[in-house]
Amino acid sequence: QVQLQESGPGLVKPSETLSLTCTVSGASISSYYWNWIRQPAGKGLEWIGRIYTSGSTDYNPSLKSRVTMSVDTSKNQFSLNLSSVTAADTAVYYCARDETGISLDYWGQGTLVTVSS
Amino acid sequence: SFELTQPPSVSVSPGQTASITCSGDKLGNKYACWYQQKPGQSPVLVIYQDSKRPSGIPERFSGSNSGNTATLTISGTQAMDEADYYCQAWDSSSWVFGGGTKLTVL
């Protein structure tokens, strides 16, 4: 069974960089796209971007200038960096596997990141 | 930019059929999928490629997609189906989510 687990600081100061890692277990990270999605409290889902195991990326145009994703196949992990954060970036952040443009078939449990001084 | 529009809320009586729509320009030319999200939980895929059900999803969940509208249909709705539902499609190198629909079973 494929499992994904997000990890990283739960509190980030304004203007700093939010950094999260997603660890994949139960399957190889190879040959899939891996996504980040976020959800502010009480609001809908927002796609942040995705990365293929080759390092190729697609980002949400509205966040592209602040987003960087990377992948470490040796650790079966992929990561998200979101720079210059503000309170508007406070949300639950999910990682998810991308069934090659068909759907997001496996999701992590989500991790709450709060942006506050 | 491509947008997906869902009704904010839908109500249904237990045992009846619930239909949740998702509208987008020429959505029928793309694949649509649907997610169920219960409070405090991660989204769960319930329909992919317009009408396919992942393993473990009950048969009462079905989907269709034509023209500008994709529809998620829940037949014989149960109290456990009360949740938020999100549609999603791939467009111009981006995943796009609908705003979500709160399904109330009453």
Describe the structure.
- The complex is a heterodimer of chains A (about 120) and B (about 110).
- Chain A has about 120 residues and is mainly β.
- The termini of chain A are far apart.
- The mean pLDDT of chain A is about 95.
- Chain B is globular, with a radius of gyration of 13 Å.
- The model of chain B has no long low-confidence stretch (mean pLDDT about 95).
- In chain B, a hairpin with a 6-residue loop joins β3 and β4.
- In chain B, the strands form two sheets. In chain B, strands 1, 3, 4, 7, 8 and 9 form a six-stranded mixed beta sheet that branches.
- Chain B has about 110 residues and is an all-beta fold.
- Chains A and B meet through β5 and β10 of A and β7 and β8 of B.
What topology emerges from the helices and strands here?
The complex is a heterodimer of chains A (117) and B (106).
Chain A: E1 3-7, E2 11-12, E3 18-25, E4 33-39, E5 46-52, E6 57-59, E7 67-72, E8 77-82, E9 91-98, E10 104-107, E11 111-115
Parallel strand pairs in A: 2-11
Antiparallel strand pairs in A: 1-3, 3-8, 4-5, 4-9, 5-6, 7-8, 9-10, 9-11
Chain B: E1 9-12, E2 18-23, E3 32-37, E4 44-47, E5 61-66, E6 69-74, E7 83-91, E8 94-97, E9 101-105
Parallel strand pairs in B: 1-9
Antiparallel strand pairs in B: 2-6, 3-4, 3-7, 5-6, 7-8, 7-9
Comma- or semicolon-separated keywords:
heterodimer, A: 117 residues, mainly beta, four-stranded antiparallel sheet, B: 106 residues, six-stranded mixed sheet, 9 strands, globular
